User: Fold this.
Amino acid sequence: MNIIVCIKQVPETTEVRINPETNTLIREGVKSIINPFDMYAIEEAIRLKERFGGKITIVTMGPPQAEAALREAISMGADEGYLVGDRAFAGSDTWATSYTLAGAIKKIGVYDLIICGKQASDGDTAQVGPGISTHLNIPQVTYVKKVEEATDKSMRVERMLEEGYEIIETPLPALLTVVKEINEPRIPSLKGLMRAKSAKIIVWGQKDLNLDPQQIGLCGSPTQVVKIFTPTQRAGGQILKGEPAEIAKELVSLIKDEVN
Amino acid sequence: MDYLLTDEQKMIKDLAHKIAEEKIRPAAAKYDVSEEYPWDVLKVMAESDMFGLFIPEEYGGLGTNVMNLCLATEEFSRACGGIAVCYAASALGTFPIVLFGNDEQKKKYLPDLASGKKVAAFAITEPEAGSDASGIKTVAKKEGDYYILNGLKHFITNGGDAETYVVVAMTDKTKGARGASAFIVEKGTPGFTFGKKEDKFGIRASSTRELIFTDCKIPAKNLLSKEGMGFIVTMRTFDMSRPGVAAQALGIAQGALELAVKYVRQRVQFGKPISSFQGIQWMLADMATEVEAARGLVYSTARMVDAGKKDVSKESAMAKMFASDVAMKVSVDALQLFGGYGYMKDYPIEKYVRDAKITQIYEGTNQVQRNIIALQLIKELSKS
Assistant:
């Protein structure tokens, strides 16, 4: 089974400090890590490879330092890494990012499965995985918490819902996004770290992928960030106590007061 | 202090640090109470190739390297001296095979020890043979293609949980120390059973048991080196492993120091964090300096061993003695800095005191280490 895992390098949010004067993140000195949800995607790919054999290809879009994320994935057990990076891709929103990553995956060509984390811990959109599958025109199953069965033609998975789970069978190739319940990512081995150190990372830019210039980078991004603000804190609610009939009456009168 | 570690050494240290913080520290208190053998943590170490650090490449390891072993043991011990010793004791049980095993023995035993599939143990101590190893009563009598072992070993770290044992027994009692021999004994050999598991003051995650040999028949090909080499095997093994015990002590000291520094910055008395008081600062300064001195000695000794220096008994003994004395002093001082809280089991620091104590005792008490150092010193001076 040939698996592609898409990952993102993000700031380590457990160590983020806020500048009290500007209320913005202090980015200096903040370590970059693989998006925690992507770690589960990498681990699941390795487990599937251990069961079915095949190859794991890691793809990331980002600046040159994102190469470290690819090497970390290789140290865990992935086979090769592609860094999709170009000034032309800067400012991409989820649309442009998923279009660009889909372009890279098309160029890689042969795959049975794509796995992504459910979302990135910095943007929290959960859109890039589904976006890639849409651009590639393959099925997607989001929030996967367990791979039940797999063959080279299809896969049966459990998809986590707020209350319970769904069992979904999908033909392959398909794209999965995974939740943290699916596994526990492994610690790399020394041999893996040594292999990762000398692994060749392939870098692709706009020229290599030959993408539609109207759909990449800032100009290919329909999302516009107009303003970023901290939501105002909600005041604590009021809890009504007593018999249900009395509570209902009191609630109605409170609502009436509020309206008036 | 910068010890100018190579990229590979840094990689090993960082990986061991990650294992220590993510897997060992969260489990330390649990195993200290339950005294269960920490198989789940050892499995992570195994999958990360940590058991390969003391085994040659041709037998599935990453090359026998005492410095690498010390770096890993130090990091593990920062988080838990008990779990770390399960790992280090396997190295102790493996070294005799690495140093004295023939190719057949190495091929048979080392790959599983390198992968961490099996754990090793070394057995010399007996109820009446502690520091005085010449008191060994376990005997190995040759009968055809076999040796028949009879006797009792006690205080054996990893005893019962290890699969591969190196056991020192007398093949010729009339020759005293020169009548001892070392054998590889596999768990499950008929006549080889285990006695009681010890209830210990510290390093409670590790298992310590009696080994009982009752007409235990082992193949003659399991003899390491030749008959009569038992004490040479033991001494050479200890020369290699003492830096590891020293690294364990160093890690315990470092771990206690870190906890103390963190605590004194948080603890407020008289309206200020107690780290702002000079009396506290001076204690910390002494502790940090002693830990660094121990580290210098441990690393230098490990590098000497790896450089192939023949006689390292004195340096190995110095490193083990000094680092373990520092571990004891620093952990006690760290507990003092925690005040009354430190005496309570709700805080992690009292465990460091309990874990530190054994490092002054095992693999030769620190009094025996001083004997070794003095003897070697006098020998060297009389030559010059």
Chain A has one domain: 2-220.
